[in-house]
Automatic annotation (TrEMBL):
Residues 73-247 form the FAD-binding PCMH-type domain. One of its GO terms (molecular function) is oxidoreductase activity. It comes from Sphenostylis stenocarpa. SUPFAM superfamilies: FAD-binding/transporter-associated domain-like. This is FAD-binding PCMH-type domain-containing protein. It holds the Pfam family BBE. PANTHER family: OS08G0158400 PROTEIN. The lineage of its organism: Eukaryota, Viridiplantae, Streptophyta, Embryophyta, Tracheophyta. PROSITE patterns: FAD_PCMH. The keyword Glycoprotein applies. One of its GO terms (biological process) is cannabinoid biosynthetic process. It comes from the Eukaryota. Keywords: Disulfide bond, FAD, Flavoprotein, Glycoprotein, Signal.
Length: 532
């Protein structure tokens, strides 16, 4: 699979098309363009969904993860294309430019702000649902995985072939490989093996001219940029070649609940000093949220400690006794299992096959934000934080903290665009989820999480206050609809990418000078006329 075939060269590469900005054309003529520029128009017409198609809505909603962007008021694409062939994508890229339409690229649809399927200008969606082949090469510990696959599908395919190989991507199985690898991607194996993007060794991308390029063809600058800089600024990433990583036949999982009455505040405080220093074979994260106490029904805060350890339970308990005795870990809070079972364990799946079910996910409305913490937050500040979780707007709120350290300290900040390495104790994800509809409810939760974010300001990284690109947050700054200067974009760009932002902008200027691939947080072109 994934050999660069030559047929497309004949089809589209030869096309030299003008970049003259065309007025937005009718839907029909865009679709006609697709057919004209595909050598097999009968084949492309089968993957084109216009608004009048009865399947349009179900295709659009197939992977919308955040219901905040699924209402009647949300802008909708003129056309959705679910390509089955490379030339389908090439045709969309060319015809969208001709017809002045923006393109949004969707793999798993988990973007926190819905950027893969929502735009405020006329646009089309390329949904990669049909590009999800996975080829595992056990002998060489590598795999080719197409962007439309989910990380759950990837884990499943690895486990079919080997019990001692894994991959350090996210814990949540329905997330798309396309978005996640492009923005970094981390899970329980982070401290030993780094990010998903750290383990990418080749990729296939279709660029603004419709060329299909592998690592050699795209060059090291672009290959650097798409491993953490977000694919959507540069082209359509079709597939990734990844390095699989060794895991032992038996791993240990930990899940331990501690409420405020069980000294959660002290434990969280202590964890801040311990988490990033533990053996790299473990990643001990904490999920924090409000619950009703089991004794008296009064609200309290639960700290749910969760870890995977790449080794047996005895070793793990010894390790925790030595490094974090305050937790008072009990053996029954741990369990031994295979690595793939540990993946299932944390999402509560009973069967491995559920990893293949792309709708196996709770969809609700949510807003999330992120931070990096570099010095421990004082206990008294944690107590103030808990107070915020008792507010009305915090219903459905969680805060997840995950330790860095380990191999993250060994990788330079400029190795790939993801810059958050040495010196970070942990990453924080704040989120608030709700099911009700209506502006008032939305405002209540969103203003709550914004207040939480300002409360945290003194305790987290600053200059810049760093954020994780995969936890997209439009509150930290957006591009203009038209031209956006590099300086303006640094407002959000430095938070995600620090000093790598400049190099990202240089790569962008080289590969997509006219800024065709753009969105509210795409890397700007440095050319002054860089927008169409
Ligand atoms: C429930 C949930 C759990 C999560 N868990 C984790 C976790 O454990 N670890 C972690 O690191 N992150 C996690 N995330 C964040 C997740 O990694 C990002 O939201 C990621 O970008 C989603 O990828 P996607 O393909 O599903 O999303 P999409 O919405 O399809 O895409 C996200 C962005 O990438 C672009 N993009 C997608 N595919 C391509 C492509 N093929 N070529 C070019 N650009 C593309 C889109 O245009 C969009 O800008 C989680 C998110 C959710 C909603
Ligand atoms: C495309 O078609 C839809 C529905 O048929 C219509 O509402 C919309 O205005 C059309 N857009 C353009 C740009 O023609
Ligand atoms: C065109 O596509 C159709 C449907 O995918 C297929 O049946 C047909 O063989 C293709 N024709 C050519 C010339 O490739
Ligand atoms: C909707 O679009 C799909 C894909 O192009 C096509 O196969 C189907 O026939 C269309 N359905 C209708 C009712 O137009
Ligand atoms: C493994 O990699 C080597 C060296 O890159 C290559 O020659 C060989 O064909 C690969 N083996 C398989 C099974 O792909
Ligand atoms: C909480 O900590 C105190 C001392 O700091 C200790 O005496 C007490 O046993 C702890 N409570 C629990 C439930 O662990
Ligand atoms: C907790 O208690 C409150 C008030 O009694 C109730 O409204 C809420 O549903 C309870 N939450 C849970 C998760 O049980
Ligand atoms: C996938 O999961 C959803 C939600 O749990 C369920 O409704 C559906 O039947 C499942 N599909 C398959 C094929 O198992
Ligand atoms: C990080 O580098 C140190 C020193 O070279 C080494 O001992 C350690 O094993 C490395 N950590 C990881 C997780 O690779």
């Amino acid at each position: 699979m994934m050999h660069l075939s030559s047929f497309f060269t004949v089809v589209v590469i030869a096309l030299v098309f003008s970049f003259k900005s065309a007025a937005v054309d009718t839907n029909l003529s865009f679709v006609q363009c697709l057919c004209t520029y595909s050598h097999n128009s009968s084949s492309i017409s089968k993957v084109v969904y216009t608004k009048t198609n009865s399947s349009y809505s179900s295709i659009l909603h197939i992977s919308i993860q955040n219901l905040r962007f699924a209402s009647n008021k949300t802008p909708k694409p003129l056309v959705i294309i679910t390509p089955q062939e490379v030339f389908h994508i090439q045709a969309v890229i060319i015809c969208s430019q001709r017809h002045g339409l923006q393109v949004r690229i969707r793999s798993g649809g988990h973007d926190f702000e819905g950027l893969s399927y929502v735009a405020k200008v006329p646009y089309v969606v390329i949904d990669l649902i049909n590009f999800r082949e996975i080829e595992i090469n056990v002998k060489n510990s590598t795999a080719w995985v197409q962007s439309g696959a989910t990380v759950g599908e990837l884990y499943y395919k690895i486990s079919e072939k080997s019990k001692t190989l894994g991959f350090p991507a996210g814990a949540f199985p329905t997330v798309g490989v396309g978005g996640q690898f492009g923005g970094g991607g981390y899970g329980f194996l982070l401290r030993k093996y780094g990010l998903a993007a750290d383990n990418v060794i080749d990729a296939h991308i279709i660029d603004v001219e419709g060329r299909l390029l592998d690592r050699e063809g795209m060059g090291e600058d672009l290959f650097w940029a798409i491993r953490g800089g977000g694919g959507a600024s540069f082209g359509v990433i079709l597939a990734w070649k990844i390095k699989l990583v060794p895991v032992p036949p038996t791993v240990t999982v930990l899940r331990a609940s501690r409420t405020l009455e069980q000294n959660a505040t002290k434990l969280v405080h202590r964890w801040q000093l311990v988490g990033s220093k533990l053996d790299e074979d473990t990643g001990l994260g904490i999920l924090l949220h409000r619950i009703n106490s089991s004794n008296n029904g009064e609200p309290t805060i639960e700290a749910l400690f969760q870890a995977t350890y790449l080794g047996g339970v005895d070793q793990f308990i010894d390790l925790m006794q030595e490094k974090f005795p305050e937790l008072g870990l009990k053996r029954e809070e741990c369990a031994e299992m295979s690595w793939i079972e540990s993946v299932l364990f944390f999402v509560g799946f009973q069967r491995r096959e559920l990893l293949l079910n792309r709708s196996q996910t709770i969809t609700d409305s949510f807003k999330a934000k992120s931070d990096f913490v570099r010095t421990p937050i004082p206990e008294v500040a944690l107590e103030g934080l808990w107070q915020l979780f008792y507010e009305d707007g915090a219903q459905g709120a969680t805060m997840i903290v995950f330790p860095f350290g380990g191999i993250m300290d060994n990788i330079s900040e400029s190795e790939i665009p993801f810059p958050h390495r040495s010196g970070n104790l942990y990453l924080v994800q704040y989120s608030v989820h709700w099911l009700e509809e209506g502006d008032e409810v939305v405002q209540k939760h969103i203003s709550w999480i914004r207040r939480l974010y300002s409360y945290m300001e003194p305790f987290v990284s600053n200059s810049p206050r760093a954020a994780y690109a995969n936890y997209r947050d439009l509150d930290i700054g957006v591009n203009n609809k038209g031209f956006t200067s590099y300086n303006q974009a640094t407002v959000w760009g430095f938070k995600y990418f620090k000093n790598n932002f400049k190099r990202l902008a240089h790569v962008k200027t080289k590969v997509d000078p006219s800024n065709f691939f753009r969105n509210e947080q795409s890397i700007p072109s440095l050319l002054p006329q860089g927008h169409k």
